[in-house]
Design goal:
With 484 residues, the chain is of the alpha/beta class. Helix content is 39%, strand content 13%. The protein has 16 helices and 11 strands. Bound molecules: glutamine.
């Protein structure tokens, strides 16, 4: 049986009915990984032995009818989530020897629900990038065409789900790293409201923007797992004091009469004709389902990219100061003295993009420049957030493309950081405002998938998923998978 063709809820049903065991399901994916991942490089570590023992434990629980809510379902974790006793690299040489001494809350929550970890997925170094070409462990390929990038930074998670090497994967999004790779790989990716998912044990890039979520094959699958990942965590001081939300019950409710906002600033941008066409067709689908389309304005949205490229590097420069070769991770050989130890460890342990961000961030935070750059960026960030609050007084969700186009060829943008940064032009605003956003497939161009983005008001993941699910119940873009 093609077990990898089943949705997560069908897999769960199959496990419950005893149609197949978790050991069978897990082995099926492990076999696909060993057969196909050589050409994709979507995993940094495959945790075969641990997966099979977790699967066996789930099977034993089924035998005694003592099972957990997601018992025996496989998942891949982005290598940014600490997993006790398992290599956790964040795509960096700096952590290439780091076995986490504890597990992230995300891992713990899914583990407690019985999920089986297949392995740790490749990613841009410290989650900085949009093409998964900055990983110390080599670039990841897009299963739709291996000459193209899968997007980043959660490129490994997107690549492996798209090639059906895992039914679902965790991911993180600081400026677009869940939605952009989901868009480029033809998948559904959701970044929840800031604070919804605990950041405990999720290696920090830019703490005020980072948020965990999932990349899945459908909104239905995403809802099932995101629900289990969410909820208050006393170990994360920015975790919202809210219980686990119900994200699945609302999926089938009609969206008739609900309002979709189209921000004029996004649609004024020069947009590739095929992008506009796909988005217009998606809008028609929503109209046919009874949604109302409203033109809106987000007046300060065009400031988002410059704001982000002050705040994210500033926070990263502070967060990455901990990698000094003293406490854990990579250490240079034969340091002359303590200064040499710090300097050479960081010189040798970090890649070029990470160094570029640390330099920009350190500069933006330095005495005399702090007010002019960092503080100013924070004030402007508030303006963007205010625009969204205003807009959500009159609409339910905001629709746009996720990315300026389909995937691009490996190497095409590596020498032009600004070109690369422009990949996130549509996704960054939601991070600045802390809002939930998702991407779902809505078209194709030259055999490569394309996504649309929906951004919701704070804590309205359920409504976003409802919009995504109603689209997916009436179209089949999300059903298309690459021939790998
Ligand atoms: N591409 C953006 C960056 O390089 C966003 C990355 C992310 O969301 N982690 O910073």
């Amino acid at each position: 049986m093609d077990l990898h063709k089943l949705s997560l809820s069908k897999q769960l049903e199959g496990l419950k009915k005893g149609d197949f065991t978790s050991t069978e399901l897990t082995s099926h994916y492990l076999n696909r990984i060993s057969e196909l991942d050589g050409q994709l490089n979507s995993f940094i570590t495959v945790t075969e032995d641990q997966a099979l023992s977790q699967a066996k434990a789930a099977d034993d629980r089924y035998k005694t009818n003592n099972n957990f809510s997601l018992d025996g379902l496989p998942i891949a974790h982005k290598d940014i989530f600490c997993t006790k006793g398992v290599l956790t690299t964040c795509g960096s040489k700096m952590l290439s020897n780091f076995e986490a001494p504890y597990s992230s809350t995300v891992y713990e929550k899914l583990d407690k629900n019985g999920m089986v970890m297949l392995g740790k997925t490749n990613m841009d170094e410290f989650a900085m990038g949009s093409s998964n070409e900055t990983s110390y462990f080599g670039p990841v390929k897009n299963p739709w065409n291996i000459e193209y990038v899968p997007g980043g930074s959660s490129g490994g998670s997107a690549s492996c789900v798209s090639a059906e090497l895992a039914p679902i994967a965790t991911a993180t999004d600081t400026g677009g790293s869940i939605r952009q790779p989901a868009s480029l790989c033809g998948l559904t990716g959701i970044k929840p409201t800031y604070g919804r998912v605990s950041r405990y044990g999720m290696i920090a890039f830019a703490s005020s923007l980072d948020q965990g979520g999932v990349i899945a094959k459908s909104a239905e699958d995403a809802a099932l797992i995101l629900e289990a990942m969410s909820g208050h965590d006393p170990k994360d001081s920015t975790s919202l004091k809210l219980d686990q939300p119900d994200l699945t019950n609302n999926l089938n409710n009609p969206i008739k009469g609900m309002k979709i906002g189209l921000p004029k600033e996004f649609f004024e941008k020069e947009m590739a004709p095929y992008v506009l066409k796909s988005i217009e067709e998606a809008i028609e689908v929503y109209k046919s389902l009874g949604a109302e389309i409203v033109d809106i304005s987000l007046g300060n949205i065009n400031l988002s990219l410059p704001i982000y490229y002050i705040i994210a590097p500033a926070e990263c420069s502070a967060n990455l100061s901990r990698y000094d070769g003293v406490r854990y991770g990579y250490r240079c050989e034969d340091p002359k003295d303590i200064e040499d130890l710090f300097m050479r460890t960081r010189e040798e342990g970090f890649g070029a993009e990470v160094k570029r961000r640390i330099l920009i961030g350190t500069y933006a935070l330095s005495a005399g420049y702090y007010d002019a750059f960092y503080l100013k960026a924070q004030k402007c960030r508030q303006l963007v957030a205010n625009d969204f609050s205003e807009a959500f007084k009159s609409v339910d969700v905001i629709l746009s493309p996720t990315t300026p186009g389909t995937s691009f060829k490996s190497g095409e943008k590596t020498n032009d950081p600004v070109e690369m940064y422009l990949q996130d032009i549509f996704t960054i605003p939601a991070n600045l405002a802390g809002l939930p956003g998702l991407s779902i497939p809505c078209g194709e161009h030259n055999g490569l998938p394309l996504g649309m983005q929906l951004v919701g008001n704070s804590l309205e993941e359920s409504k976003l998923l409802q919009f995504a699910h109603s689209f997916q119940s009436n179209t089949d873009w999300h059903m298309k998978m690459p021939n790998i």
